């Protein structure tokens, strides 16, 4: 017997019993399935993964050697949507929207005239906005660097 369980009430249960060649799927969406065949490789596949899939999963195997439990924690990472704009007062605005975890934003040239805001969304994603005061600068351009576990992006804007 091989069974995958999500550790919450009324969550998905995916199981295979080899002596009966029987598979069962309870409370599972179509996105949750066996990666290959449970006979040869009982790996779990979640595709496409969703923020709601985040959590703890247990794989339980039962054979002649005994019962075995393997615990896995699934963390979903969401790359942010990145934009670079400016307003009328020559403030550059770099925004990393709806990322998980929050992105880090830095500027070239480096400046202590920048400020940041962070907005937390109900689905667990975060939007970070960084403002770069450009009015007193003699540099002709600005570069926004966005660092995130899923992506690193560099955006360039000519300020002349």
SSE blueprint and pairings:
Blueprint: E1 2-6, E2 13-17, E3 22-26, E4 32-34, E5 44-46, E6 55-63, E7 66-74, E8 81-86, E9 91-99, E10 104-108, E11 114-120, E12 126-133, E13 141-148, E14 151-158
Antiparallel strand pairs: 1-2, 1-6, 2-3, 4-5, 6-7, 8-9, 9-12, 10-13, 11-12, 13-14
Keywords: Disulfide bond, Glycoprotein, Membrane, Receptor, Transmembrane, Transmembrane helix
Subcellular location: Membrane
Organism: Erpornis zantholeuca
Word description of this protein:
By secondary structure, the protein is mainly β. The chain has 2 domains: about 1-75, Immunoglobulin-like (Sandwich); about 80-160, Immunoglobulin-like (Sandwich), CATH 2.60.40. It has no helices and 14 strands. It has strands spanning about 1-5, 15, 20-25, 30-35, 45, 55-65, 65-75, 80-85, 90-100, 105-110, 115-120, 125-135, 140-150, 150-160. Strands 3-2-1-6-7 form a 5-stranded antiparallel beta sheet, with no helix packed on it. The protein starts with a strand and ends with a strand. The mean pLDDT is about 90. It is found in: Membrane.
Helix and strand sequence: EEEEEEEEEEEEEE
> What's the gyration radius in Å?
24 Å
Largest sheet, order of strands side by side? 3-2-1-6-7
Number of strands: 14
Quote the CATH topology of the largest domain.
Immunoglobulin-like
User: Which architecture name of the largest domain does CATH use?
Assistant: Sandwich
- Mean pLDDT over the residues: 90
What profile does the largest beta sheet have? 5 strands, antiparallel
The CATH homology group name of the largest domain? Immunoglobulins
Give the helix tally. 0
Report helical residue fraction. Answer: under 10%
Q: Which structural class should the secondary elements be placed in?
A: mainly beta
- Give the overall shape: rod-shaped
CATH class of the largest domain: Mainly Beta
Distance between the termini: 68 Å
User: What is the number of domains?
Assistant: 2
Low-confidence stretches: none
Beta-strand residue fraction: over 45%
Subcellular location: Membrane
Pfam families: C2-set_2, I-set
Domain Ig-like: 1-75
Keywords: Disulfide bond, Glycoprotein, Membrane, Receptor, Transmembrane, Transmembrane helix
């Amino acid at each position: 017997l091989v069974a995958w369980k999500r550790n919450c009430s009324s969550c998905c249960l995916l199981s295979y019993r080899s002596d009966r060649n029987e598979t069962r799927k309870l409370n599972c969406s179509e996105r949750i399935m066996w990666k290959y065949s449970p006979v040869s490789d009982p790996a779990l596949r979640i595709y496409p993964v969703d923020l709601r899939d985040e959590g703890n999963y247990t794989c339980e195997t039962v054979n002649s050697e005994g019962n075995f439990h393997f615990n896995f924690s699934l963390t979903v990472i969401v790359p942010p949507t990145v934009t670079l704009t400016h307003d009328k007062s020559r403030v550059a605005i770099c925004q990393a929207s709806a990322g998980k975890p929050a992105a880090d934003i830095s500027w070239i040239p480096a400046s202590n005239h920048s400020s940041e805001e962070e907005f937390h969304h109900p689905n667990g994603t975060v939007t970070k906005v960084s403002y770069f005061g450009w009015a007193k600068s003699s540099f002709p351009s600005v570069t926004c660097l966005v660092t995130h576990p899923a992506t690193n992006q560099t955006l360039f804007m000519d300020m002349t």
